[in-house]
Design goal:
By secondary structure, the chain is mostly helical. It has two helices and no strands.
């Protein structure tokens, strides 16, 4: 028998009330990363910094979605 939480077989359409603020925070942070001003990071070109921010934002959105798959 596996220990710990198990991934659902199907996506839950709604999260518990306690998990909704976490989902919203992840989505809000993703939006902030994508829309905020892009500055260089310790000498890294702004274009590279922008791509890194987009990748992190995508990961936050993936985490928010993944929450629907866990019990």
């Amino acid at each position: 028998m596996p220990s710990g939480p198990q991934r659902r077989a199907t996506r839950a359409p709604h999260l518990s009330a306690a998990a909704v603020p976490v989902e919203l925070a992840l989505i809000a942070r993703a939006e902030e990363l994508e829309s905020g001003p892009v500055l260089s990071l310790n000498g890294t070109p702004a274009a590279t910094a922008s791509e890194v921010r987009r990748m992190i934002a995508a990961e936050f959105r993936s985490l928010a979605e993944e929450m629907h798959w866990w019990a």
